[in-house]
């Protein structure tokens, strides 16, 4: 039985099902959990085929950073966040399913890699160095594909600047901050002394005749 093919199809089906759940569920928290499972399943596929650098980078970059960005966008949208925070127990079943699926994938990946492991030859150090996909990827990026790599860096930088400019644009009914004015503020601008006249209290009205008599 080919455990590598079985594991590949299991990881691929899990990634496809969880990706479909991301666009089908209505709750954004459940969508985040399903998207985490999707990224983790794809990372397991990369680790299964021997691309350790891409698998680890997928987990660190997408699961660690993109999920934070996704939650940041959810916070900026017109969503009742207070209602999402209430009753967090209702998200526990989906979280348990995602956690169990990720644990099963980790155990399956460890088992498959252990079965497919072969002993190193005598020159283990040189063989391990030649088998490093991180070194191969770095050599290709900075030698053969240096120009596309630099173009991608410039495009990503422009995209980040454009996203910031779109977010900071002035719109009606939206409160914005002016960093230049905030940096030029002085201590005297934060405190203002106002002179107000003292008002005398009004005299108490005299009781009318007949009031207070038994």
Characterize the structure shown.
This protein has 214 residues and is mostly helical. It has a domain at 1-80: Four Helix Bundle (Hemerythrin (Met), subunit A) (Up-down Bundle), CATH 1.20.120.1200. It has nine helices and no strands. It has helices at 3-24, 28-48, 52-76, 81-85, 92-116, 124-130, 133-144, 146-167, 179-183. The longest helix is centred in the N-terminal third of the chain and has 25 residues, at 52-76.
Helix content: 55-70%
Outline the biggest β-sheet.
none
- Helical segment tally? 9
The CATH homologous superfamily name of one domain equals NADH-ubiquinone/plastoquinone oxidoreductase chain 6, subunit NuoJ
Q: What structural class is derived from the secondary structure elements?
A: mainly alpha
Overall 3D shape? elongated
Instruction: Supply the CATH class of one domain.
Output: Mainly Alpha
- Following the backbone from N to C, one meets helices and strands in this order, namely HHHHHHHHH
Kindly state the number of beta strands.
0
Rg (C-alpha, Å): 31 Å
Residue share in β-strands: under 5%
CATH topology of one domain: Four Helix Bundle (Hemerythrin (Met), subunit A)
End-to-end span in angstroms?
A: 108 Å
Kindly report the average pLDDT value.
Answer: 76
Low-confidence stretches: 119-129
- Going by CATH, the architecture of one domain would be Up-down Bundle
